[in-house]
Fold this sequence. Notes:
Order of helices and strands: EEHEEHH
Strand order of the largest sheet: 1-2
Amino acid sequence: MQLAGILCAFCKQNVLVESDATWCARCGTVLHCECLARASEVCPACQRTYDRPEAHFMLSQQCPECFRPNNPPQAQCASCAARTRWDTRAAYDDYLAHMKDTSRVCVLRGIAKLAGGALCLLALVTTFLVSRRPGILGSFLFLLGFITLTVDGFVSLIRSRRIARFR
């Protein structure tokens, strides 16, 4: 949760530095750590004992960017510094749903690219069968399109599998 710039519920002053503040996981109220300590750890909004957000954090098993294992579990990937922590289970579940949707889009892109590659191959074969003297440039472009689209299609399908297995 972004805390800098939000008013503290106790002192009504802006949070200047992220590390100086926290929030109540029960109600989402932003609080300066010092103000919370002075109030005996009672949230001013929900009037209950402060619920530490750390108890609700969800850490992914792998990095969503480079797919390296997040072991030992950390808030950021040790390799690429991507976020591997979510504030709540609901936020993590939303991100998982987003990753599933992204995986489906990658599958569709991969299939479309493979279909485009097949069309380029068909056009190349047709050019050689129909024309007595096929043009070098046209043949080269069809061949280049076939190779490029086919490789990109397979890469998209492989990437979609990696994304779908994100946890």
